[in-house]
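Run log, item B.
One chain of 375 residues. Sequence copied directly from the ordering sheet:
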Amino acid sequence: MLIFADSVRSPELRHEVPVPVPDAFLYLERDGRRVAVVTAFEVPRLAGALPQLEVMTPEQFGRDDLIAEGRSNSEIDLEVALRACRELGVERASVPPGFPLEFADYLRGNGIELQADRELFAGRRRAKNATEIEGVRRAQRACEAALDAARAILRRADVANGGLTVDGSPLTCELLKRQVERVFSEHGVAAEEFIVSHGAQTAIGHETGHGPIAPDEPILFDLFPRDRGTGCYSDMTRTYVVGEPSDEVREFHRLCKEALDRAIASTRPGVNGRLLMEETCDLFHEHGYPTQMHKEPGEVLEDGFFHGLGHGVGLEVHERPSISRVGHVLVPGDVITLEPGLYRSGVGGVRLEDILLVTDDGCENLTSYPYDLEP
């Protein structure tokens, strides 16, 4: 197995080397031997954190001689990788699907056989280790604290001139996002993007949200921060209304909560994610809403339940297993979300999302937060 990446952006590498290294480096496994080729800058960190990892440096593969020859940095990286493979006896290797094309071309051109193996690397990351699960838990507690802060603002909102104000200023998605970001920072997590949308925006999938919020319309929070210590994400969604929800939004919310309860009760090892998706779609279909399972082939849904029920979460916010029309069989150690939603284009929608750990005999809901439509 061969990876060339940095462990900040590569989930495949971060799983094997749980230390954030911002510069790309070579990682190899062969016959139980685990080797990282890193600069002297990183040696103490990796050696101290991973005693079982054999840490080597580019100098051991002739980097100084290559510099003396006038090679560029990129040329040196390529040649060091080739020499490391040869010295460690690597003649063929499995690589992740995102392995750099430049490195693949160079290694293949010099006799190293490479095979992209998505299943291998996805499978290694399916069952989360204790450190990763703890990172997910921390990220989830940050989600809940951030929602506490946002809901406190919603409760203080007053109706003025057809809109909502807080302390005399308009209540906006931007104001709520600033509060969420503040709480995230205090809890040691970060999020480049997350969703605080309102009104008709809530029916547009991953619309992140913007502008002033009106009374009586849905406000959707979909928060997916990353724990700084482990690089692991959580993912959680709740929907609120300041004022009086419409009968339609109340019905959306009631059905989403029922769908979530049913899906959680059905989550256990050996169940295929497609089955959970089917159960949710059947419930919504029985109540007259379009779903992915009941639409015509080629039809693109704008209303009803137009997305998958859930996905794996870990070093990526969306990873294996899939809880959708293309499902995977759940295994102990999977961390998944379940996120039923109902929407009407141009009006808005409701989504509820919890994050669960699949256990040996069922699941543990890592989310501990109320589902009320009123903040």
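Observations after the first pass:
- The chain has a mean pLDDT of 96.
- The two ends are 50 Å apart (CA to CA).
Flagged for discussion on Thursday.
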